[in-house]
Design brief:
By secondary structure, the chain is of the alpha/beta class. It has eight helices and ten strands. Bound molecules: adenosine-5'-triphosphate (ATP). GO terms for molecular function: ATP binding; ATP hydrolysis activity; transmembrane transporter activity.
Length: 249
């Protein structure tokens, strides 16, 4: 198991623009994600994470487990800059998330795909539109968007449902749309926060198989889950969060 819970020296590089270039440059042994002595205290004084250290290497697949309220979502939120640590450093590919603002934070976020438990699809938009609207906002050409859309929908098994609206899909299908949206920009890092929390065992397994396939293609994948059975079924490193501290299982 390459996942290490440790402390390392400080580095801060600028966000690199080209995903594919960065992926090629990254060796398997380089850290994709590092938390260094991270504490998160919410404004009400609650310590959600306490002096936490974590390292996830490029191309690893790691589960984050732990009881409800233990700090799993807080940990993921800090990786994409939704929450800032009260103390410590959060590094993505050696880039200090805490120091980023504006465009540089937006560029970093383009390199991170995020999947949520509740899908967060736009009801008035079709599957294809839900998957591609971020690319449109980022200024991709129509040709490039089309080039990316078809293989992405194929990968999640929804090519035939590109013109459906979210309320015409099952929960499992909606979650697969949200995975397609997260990966259509080919981010090297994929974060999934309880992606199977609303799904039955069959759909959960389907989602896990897609995430594992993306990992086999080279993405670093971090998944939070309560589902011990699912964790046991997959052979990936597990980090448990308990009372704001991390434990390797
Ligand atoms: N904005 C906030 N302000 C204050 N406390 C918060 C805030 N967000 C989360 N918390 C608290 O921090 C703790 C960790 O929350 P977090 O959502 O990270 O837990 P979790 O492990 O993801 O839980 P679950 O599995 O139920 O989603 C909880 O006790 C929660 O109540």
């Amino acid at each position: 198991m390459r996942t290490a819970i440790n402390t390392q020296a400080k580095t801060d590089k600028s966000v690199r623009r080209e995903d594919s270039e960065t992926q090629q440059q990254s060796s398997n042994n380089a850290a994709m994600v590092q938390l260094r002595s991270v504490t998160k205290t919410y404004t009400n004084g609650f310590d959600a994470l306490l002096d936490v250290n974590l390292e996830v290497k490029h191309k690893e697949f790691v589960f984050i487990t732990g009881p409800s309220g233990s700090g799993k979502s807080t940990l993921l939120k800090m990786l994409y800059g939704e929450e800032l640590p009260t103390q410590g450093e959060v590094l993505i590919d050696d880039c200090n998330v805490v120091a980023l603002r504006g465009d540089r934070l937006s560029l970093l976020r383009r390199r991170i795909g995020i999947v949520f438990q509740d899908y967060k699809l736009i009801p008035q938009r079709t599957v294809a539109e839900n998957v591609t609207f971020v690319l449109q906002a980022q200024g991709y050409t129509r040709k490039e968007i089309q080039r990316r859309l078809e293989p992405t929908l194929k990968l999640v098994g929804l090519l035939s449902k590109a013109d459906r609206f979210p309320d015409q899909l099952s929960g499992g299908e909606q979650q697969r749309v949200s995975i397609a949206r997260a990966i259509v920009g080919t981010p090297p890092l994929l974060l999934a926060d309880e992606p199977t929390g609303n799904l039955d065992p069959d759909n959960s397994w389907q989602v896990m198989q897609i995430l594992q396939k993306l990992n086999a293609f080279g993405a670093t994948v971090i998944v939070t889950t309560h589902d011990e059975q699912l964790v046991r079924r997959c052979n990936h490193p597990v980090v448990q969060v308990r009372d704001g501290r991390l434990y390797r299982k």
